[in-house]
Amino acid sequence: VEVVNKGGSLLPKGRGLEDIFILGVDPGKEGGILMIKGGKIVKNWQMPVRDGFEVDVEKLNEIVAEVKEREAIVFVEEMKPFTNEKKRTSPQAAYSMGRAREQAELPFRLAGLQVDLVQPKFWKKELGVNRDDGTDIKKGKLATYLSGWVPGHRLSDGEVDAGLIAVAGQRELRKNNPKC
């Protein structure tokens, strides 16, 4: 796929933003994956996990195969590992957080898909999501960005976050490719 580079996120040459499948990925054991195209939800998945805490790479590869067929652009939430004594985040938890992102990101990269990392601060600020917003509030915000979808649709918190990550990615593509 030939790509046009205009700084930041890229679009395949000759394709408009409405023709592109965009995938948002919220890594982690309670994360999700959501694909949009033209402002509508195409498909959603809960992050496949095994043993209750580790990404099931085999099941994730099945999702990757489906996404690769559609030449989606993938936006993965960049969960930076850190320790925080106030929140009692241990070094082990920080390691797990970083590993979950890598396990969720790597199969998409290995499949040759374009993957951009999105920091939580960026997508939350971009879409007006507050740190303490619950799933219902985030569902309402997601509904304002996607046509033909109502918040009653059953999505997990991770899938809602993945949808918001996809919408923020779509906005970034629009900014970096104004003619598309």
Summarize the structure.
By secondary structure, this protein is an alpha/beta fold.
Tell me what you see in this structure.
The chain is of the alpha/beta class. The chain is 40% helix and 20% strand. The longest helix has 20 residues, at 91-110. The strands form 3 sheets. The chain has a 5-stranded mixed sheet with strand order 5-4-3-8-9. Helix 1 (57-69) runs parallel beside helix 2 (91-110), helix 3 (120-127) crosses helix 5 (157-176) and helix 4 runs parallel beside helix 5 (157-176). It has helices spanning 57-69, 91-110, 120-127, 135-145, 157-176, and strands at residues 3-4, 11-12, 21-26, 32-37, 40-46, 49-50, 54-55, 73-77, 115-118. Strand 1 (3-4) and strand 2 (11-12) form a beta hairpin. The protein contains 5 helices and 9 strands.
**Largest sheet: spatial strand order:** 5-4-3-8-9
Low-confidence stretches: 1-7
Biggest beta-sheet profile: 5 strands, mixed
Number of helices: 5
SSE pattern, N- to C-terminal: EEEEEEEHEHEHHH
Distance between the termini: 17 Å
Structural class: alpha/beta
Outline type: globular
Helix content: 40-55%
Question: How many β-strand runs?
Answer: 9
Portion of residues in beta strands equals: 15-25%
Q: Report the mean per-residue pLDDT as an integer.
A: 80
Gyration radius, in Å: 16 Å
List descriptors.
single chain; 180 residues; alpha/beta; 5-stranded mixed beta sheet; two-stranded antiparallel sheet; 5 helices; 20% strand; globular; disordered N terminus
